[in-house]
Amino acid sequence: MMLNQFLLLSAFLFGTGIYGVITRKHTVLVLASIELMLVAVNINLVAFGATLNNAVGQVFALFVLAIAAAEVGVGLAIVLLIYRNLRSANPDDVNVLKG
Amino acid sequence: MVAQNVAFWIFAAFMAVGAVRVVTTDNIVHAALWLVLVLAGGAAQFIILGQEFVAWVQVIVYIGAVIVLFLFGIMLTRAPMEAEEKLNNNLRWPGLVAALLFSGTIAWAFIDEWGNDNVALTKPVRTKEVGELIFRGYLVPFEVVGVLLLAALIGAVVMARKD
Amino acid sequence: MGLMTSGALRKGPLKPVGELLNYSRKYSLWMFQWGLACCAIEMGVALAGPRYDVMRLGVIPFPASPRQADLIVISGTVTDKMAPAIRRLYEQMPDPKYVISMGSCANCGGPYWDSYSVTKGIDQVIPVDVYVPGCPPRPEAFIQAIVMLQERIQHEDPADRWQGKGWEPIVVGQ
Amino acid sequence: MTAFDVDPKLYSPLADSHLNVELDTGDMVLNIGPQHPATHGTFRLVVRLDGERVIKADPVIGYMHRGYEKLTEYRTYPQVTTLINRIDWLSSFANEVPFIAAAEQLMGIEAPPRALYIRTILTEMARISTFLLFLGEMGLQVGAITPAFLGFRDREYPLNLIESATGGRFHPNFNRIGGIKDDLPWGWIAECRNTMRKMLDSCDIFEDLVLGNPIFQARTRGIGIIPAELGAAYGVSGSNIRASGVDWDLRRDGEPLLPYNEIDWKVWTHQDGDSYARYWVRLQETRESARMILHLLDQMPSGPIMAKVPRIIKVPQGETYVAAENPLGEMGYYIISKGATGPFRVKIRTASFSNVSIMPWLLQGIYVPDVITVLASLYFILGDIDK
Amino acid sequence: MASFRNSIQGMQKGLGVTLKTMLKPAVTVHYPHEKEEVTARARGVIALQEENCTVCMLCARSCPDWCIYIEGHKEKRPARREGGRERTVSVLDRFDIDYALCMYCGICVEVCPFDALHWSPEYEYSEFSIASLLHDMEKLGEWEATVPEIEPLELGAEVKKAKK
Amino acid sequence: MIALLSDQLATSEMTEYYRQYLSVGVFVLASLVMVGAMLGVGYFLRPTRPQPQKYITYESGSDPVGSFGQQNVRYYLYALMFVIFDVEAVFVFPWALNADGAAQGGLGWFGFIEIFVFVAILVAGLAYLWRKGLLKWA
Amino acid sequence: MSHLLAIDLPGGWQTTLGIKTLIVMGLIPVGALVLGYTFLLKMMSHMQSRVGPMDPGGFHGWFQLIGDGIKFIQKEDIIPAGADKRVFKMAPAVVVMSTFLMFVVLPAGPNAVVAGSIHNGIGGIDVGIFYALAVSSLSVIGVLMAGWASSNKYALIGALRAAAQLIAYELPLVLAVVGVVVQAGTMNLQGIVFAQRDGEIFGWGGIGSPYILTQFVGFCLFMVAAQAELTQPPFDMPVAESELVAGYMVEYTGFRFLFFFIGEFGTAFVYAGLAATLFLGGWSIPGVEGEIANWVGPLVLFAKIMFVAFLMFWARFSYPRLREDQLQSLAWKWMIPISLINILVTGALKVAL
Ligand code: SF4
Ligand code: SF4
Ligand code: SF4
Questions:
Q1: CA G308, CA G272: separation in Å to the nearest integer?
Q2: CATH 1.20.120.1200: does it fit domain B2-83+122-160?
């Protein structure tokens, strides 16, 4: 297996994630797109680890996973908070902070 | 190593389709389910790469927990059964351009840098090694993750709860 | 497709298959748990209960949703207010499905034959396979009805049932 | 699809709730019934939910309305007697007693003591069979399958006795104006003694299997509390109100229709008023009934079972209200007679109707699983609600 | 802690009950294969003793469901005694009971002054068609064979003149 | 047949690893095939009889009313807590494999203390939420 | 395929896998049938003083569940008009897949393991039990899909309850296993069996060291959590018949419904198998060694599974169900702290000894 096939896959996923973050109007979907990007990152990490033939990549991927889980938890809690207060899950509607 | 490559491309195709559907589908629940496909494909890739532990962690944490959390969140914010008309804003073209630019750049960079490297596995990474590495080598990050999780836990619960 | 209803299982090489299908339908009658009045107590309680234990005959009295049921027992008084719901629940059951009308009320109004709010017989609403007389019928009478129904299922041809054969109209004054 | 264009405004009156809604995620209107395992048949409850919390519950009744009060106007007294068996179909025998007593009052007839004793025994037996069903059914509603079947099993014994005495498992039609139809068959009393001892054992089983189970207690304690005054104001009667600490039992406090005062027994009450208390009270009452029957059998007088009654029954003009303690609560008949062979008008006061009238109040603000507990513990019979 | 122990005990007792029940034989009656004896008073089906019926119509009129259909006609019969008057007897042409409608109340049996109707505990007469639930004289007469003897009464009962 | 079941053949560790997961893959396919096959058989057999009310959502026999699809925050809270603790549980496994004393080549007390601190941090969080009454239903 | 893999595939290996797959594929429905018949029909009936099915098939109703299966094939397939058709159709497959995958790691003899062969003396996937727990969590998705796609309120409430419950008890389940993993030093189920077989209790190795003795707390936690994962009473709130009719399965007819059924009982079988393997020594039995263990092993395992399943179903038929919040607080306030303490104590002992 070539390393770059994994890297390409991860680049594609990352790009898709970016597209999703930019175009999606529903906050939950934005979070899902971010998940896509994190998966891309993990594939990269693990692929490098595999190339080096040790567990370092995997350990980092584990840390990323842990952080991603925390991120989703907090993120969705924020979505809920926004939804409760604004009755909308559109990130563009969250402009109450703008003066 | 033909078989692994074949498997890789099959899974990669699944993941690509899944990823595209995640960002384009009109139905939020479907988006979450497509995300499951991507994640499962990711786990499969990890297995191909000989890193079984992280693969199953991906399944247990992502598919078993995070996706459930997603679905709960969706159902809390009232997902309609039918497709919603307006899930996308009108930034489709800028988004596409940005995505292409970015992924093109990194893809080029990757290929340029590691274009000829081979993944040559002699044996799969066993979980025991992972444990030793975490607990001997990455002690501090590990405890930091603990604190981070604590912060996330308390923060999220307090936020989600109306008081 | 519906091989069952095409008549292909009636004879020829597929006949044993058809018989097996009939046999399994015969002994797997999931009975929709729905009581209407006094008869329901005999149907749901006495019959399911240890003394009569209708499960012996392969009648499983558990499903509470029509979607998993094969047999609906109209056990009790059907009021005009209830009849549409009965019709709906009957239709919501997947085919093939069977109906037993239990007790005088369900048969034709029974003690409430002159009441303004009672439907005079469930067969005005849905087709009935077996009528059990009684008010309420003894549990044994009901079990006998089930045995009758099972015999009928064993020998029935789903295709005939499909085409409505075997249903004779009742002519009054013969 | 016809089903989808139901006007949501139809249910808008439900919206005025005073409860504090946690996350206003929009309400969900859920139909429980008319076909639903929790509603013993054809009761319908429209609940408006916030999450799993009931904001408002609306009982919809009438799915079992058979027009009793009208039907009685077209029937003679014996025919009415057999018809009213079917109001509260679980304790049919007990339905007959107050009606017959009312007719007897109007006619000035008194049934002989042996008939009264047999009436009492059979009434109590109807109570036992009703309550055994409850004891099992309640277990089923909170999720335990086995108690239900054990209840179904033990219920068959009193039913057997009732059948061998009256000829009907369910609808005895055994009372006659002035007495009862037949005397007991040979060997009945001995059989009855045995059975009552079995009933006492089976009460122990329920105590072990259901009442003593910590899960059951956790599910029922503090759920669906009926305050005594409120319950009384709503007209809740029977074991339901006794479980709220009101020491009121028509068998003891009402008109002496049946010879309850000749034996030694106790009215059970519980202070809590919750579902657990209702279960507890009914369990104790089942025991008490079994003991009562044993007493009654010991004291059974001999003699005739019918008073002198004219062949064609015509009840003289007059009106009366007679109520008795049915298994489900107070059941009464208000009879107006114009001297014909049938009543002119009968108003029936059924226990369940009043018992469930407290339901909207009781269900407010509790969770869906508790709705089931409350419904089960109130214990109503649809025929008794809708008449 | 005591409450904890109580709950453990409560849980154990439940298990005990189910285990005990499992080890005891079941109370089930295997109906189609073996039959329980039904009590003599059971109201299963109404049997007609045709000879006794005088077509007085009392049963039909007191039936709350009006589910008894009787038709009859008068016939002249030769006198019993020599030279007596010719007798008029009522002959039953039709005696149908609609068991789909009957509410099994027993009023007809009780009301019949000539003891022509009896309860039989027979119960196996379900039908595929509702029309077949209307049973005629012949069928009702057949059931007469299954009518049980009158049982003796319990101690202390007043001895009545025996019916039947 | 047991000889068939046992693969006592010397292979490289990596091959064996792939082979194990090949069986997993085969099982994924097998389950899908089974589902498909059974549904296929059903497709050939079963009747279809459209009736006007058959496709209405079942709601105890009444008309389905009102909106659908919203839920309770509490479920979300539990899911949230689950995610966090799941991550924790996942990290416990690598330690559990190395829980031996240092003499046997494990992590010894050092690792134990590490995992103890890690668990303690999260349990502290749980205790905090518990004390705050956030775990309560109502 | 051998040259496709381009690695040294010995001849006959594919056949082996094929046979194993077939065996396990047969095993899952058969296991579900056996459990369903023995416990759900017969044992339950006798506990309720009944006899259960007698007539179907002639002898004690053995045909009942098979007949049910055949009947369900013939039933009409109804998909409600409001349902999300694709998701609705996929949900049972996901649940069944989760069950299927769990079977992969269950060892039935020294060599009778589905996944893989022997390298370092033991077969099976190295992350064994972790893998089993991971794939078992897939069923949550299936349940949520089923509930959501049915567009039925009962189904939705049921699915959310089920999901909340499944995830809440996933944790005690995972944590209860950790104690065993600490003791055995491996996650490989085969390795755990060997560790139990070769272990000793205070220097006496007569019966090995089944972990039920040392990990009794873990065993109890595992059983309770497994019960909850199976949504069986006393944890059957999600399918609470008396309120939610049939929970997330409400709208499923015919064979799709049967898949949930197979999933339920197949999973019960697997959990019983996991408990038997983790705590009771799996296929091993004292005194049986060598090649013969391959033959005896499956039987021993089956006997142990039936024993564990008996415990599960016994509780199932004796108890009422807990309410959703009671269930959650049981998980969070009791089981998770206890299992964490159990892990730490086990770890400390392991290091100290
Ligand atoms: S037939 Fe008789 S027992 Fe049955 S429901 Fe009607 S009145 Fe009640
Ligand atoms: S039993 Fe009652 S309903 Fe039946 S025929 Fe006789 S009188 Fe009529
Ligand atoms: S009451 Fe008796 S005698 Fe008169 S018609 Fe009826 S059955 Fe015949």
A1: 5
A2: yes
